[in-house]
From TrEMBL:
Belongs to the ThiD family. The keyword Isomerase does not apply. It holds the Pfam family Phos_pyr_kin. Its EC number is 2.7.1.35. Residues 16-258 form the Pyridoxamine kinase/Phosphomethylpyrimidine kinase domain. GO terms for molecular function: hydroxymethylpyrimidine kinase activity; phosphomethylpyrimidine kinase activity. This is pyridoxal kinase. It comes from the Bacteria. InterPro entries: HMP/HMP-P_kinase_dom, PM/HMP-P_kinase-1. It is an enzyme of class 2 (transferase). It catalyses: pyridoxal + ATP = pyridoxal 5'-phosphate + ADP + H(+). Keywords: ATP-binding, Kinase, Magnesium, Metal-binding, Nucleotide-binding, Transferase. It comes from Allobacillus halotolerans.
Amino acid sequence: MKHPSRAMTIAGSSAGGSAGIQADLKTFQELDVYGMSIITAIVGRHPKTDKNVHAISLEAIEAQFSTAIKQVGVDGIKTGMLFSKEVIELVASLIESAPINHLVVDPVMIGKMNSKLLKDDAIEALKKYLIPLATIITPNIPEASVLLDHRSISTVDEMKKAAIDLQQLGSKNILIKGGRLEGPAVDVLFDGTHLTTFEAPRIDTVNTSGAGCSYSAAIAAQLTKEKNVDEAVLEAKQYITTAIEYSFSYTDVVGPTNHAAKRNYGNAHDIIVKNEKI
Ligand SMILES: Nc1ncnc2c1ncn2[C@@H]1O[C@H](COP(=O)(O)OP(=O)(O)O)[C@@H](O)[C@H]1O
Ligand SMILES: Cc1ncc(COP(=O)(O)O)c(C=O)c1O
């Protein structure tokens, strides 16, 4: 038997199972890669306070990472919620010490239920230490805007311009996710020479908690299988579009995407891919 490739998520725990570490591990499993997790923080809602993030010590983060590397090894990593500049600096140095070919950085800042997942003073550390190590970064529109000093981004053309400008931060590839715009769900990839758009129909649902987490985890999973970046993004876009098509909610809270949907029902929609040279 050939061993599956090995993917690691370094991210926060999201108790409801829709986002964060939980979404990443479900995605890895669905895509047939061996999943590992390094928990950086625990997000839990406290109805009577706004203290909904419980930090994990740097020592515990380092201990998880070295255990996973020694017990298993790693082919590709994705980072999600990192919360503080201290965690970002540590995670960047751990990643630099590991023999990996693929790093997906999802610059998670604010959750869909408005949890603050990154401190304001951590943004510079993200730019300085982690993004330059990335194979690809996957900001949504508000995150891309913050990384570009609060530039307004409200059209696909502005997403294209933003993707080109974000490459100056040092990541090889930039993928801006258009989930927050109206109209078709268009994501823009810039690889340094080409702009590629990946377009899916907009699905009429609010249940997209963890969509960005699952999408970046799916890209990481495909990269560990030695797919190139274009193939990895296309397959991940098919995966997340199908997971959103079959999303649901158990309560009146924004619900999860359906991680098993592609396995159970096959791809829900064709993705339109367009490519232009810059
Ligand atoms: N209603 C929707 N219909 C189809 N695709 C969507 C929808 N909402 C988000 N997406 C897609 O889901 C992926 C995650 O995007 P987004 O929700 O913007 O990320 P995040 O969770 O980081 O905010 C992207 O490919 C985006 O285009
Ligand atoms: C730990 C963690 N990471 C990431 C996210 C981001 O989720 P989303 O992709 O829905 O923005 C959340 C949302 O609450 C979270 O709790």
